[in-house]
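Supplementary Methods S3. Complex input for the shikimate-3-phosphate-bound model.
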Amino acid sequence: MPNIVLVGFMGSGKSTIGSALAQRLGRFLIDTDLLIESSAGQSITEIFAHFGEQEFRALESKAIAWLGANVRNAIIATGGGMPIFNDIRSLGEIYYLQSDFDTIIARLDSVQRAKRPLFDNESSARELYRARAEVYAKVADHIINANKPKDEIIESILADL
Ligand code: S3P
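Predicted complex, serialized as structure tokens:
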């Protein structure tokens, strides 16, 4: 079976929904940020600080090639920029978790924001959100309203499988 690939802006719930979906479907979950962190031996924040965003995008690109060649029948929770800088269509069926920016702001506390170098400033994050929304929608096979409670989001995805 093809992978279920979750895309969307930071804080749209990709990891949380991915983990619940994996349990529900008995499938393996891969979170691309965690994959990159474990293979680099550094956190995302450290990778950005030591090597810069461009190098992080190159690591994402390598992760896509590896996942495309080796992983089937899994749930893949992507980092928010992954489909912006790379073509991810080889990874599987793409579900865009569409959350409004205000929903995202309400979800991400200061600890959650601190883990995300591109979320250190709310107004530039809002600009990034505006610039990216169209790209997510374009690459998606399915657009899921992710402003709802977690259980309803999961039901929407299951209904589309
Ligand atoms: C990024 C999103 C992050 C992480 C990195 C860059 C982005 O993942 O990959 O900080 O460019 O949107 P989450 O979407 O899981 O926060």
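The chain has a mean pLDDT of 97. The chain has nine helices and five strands.
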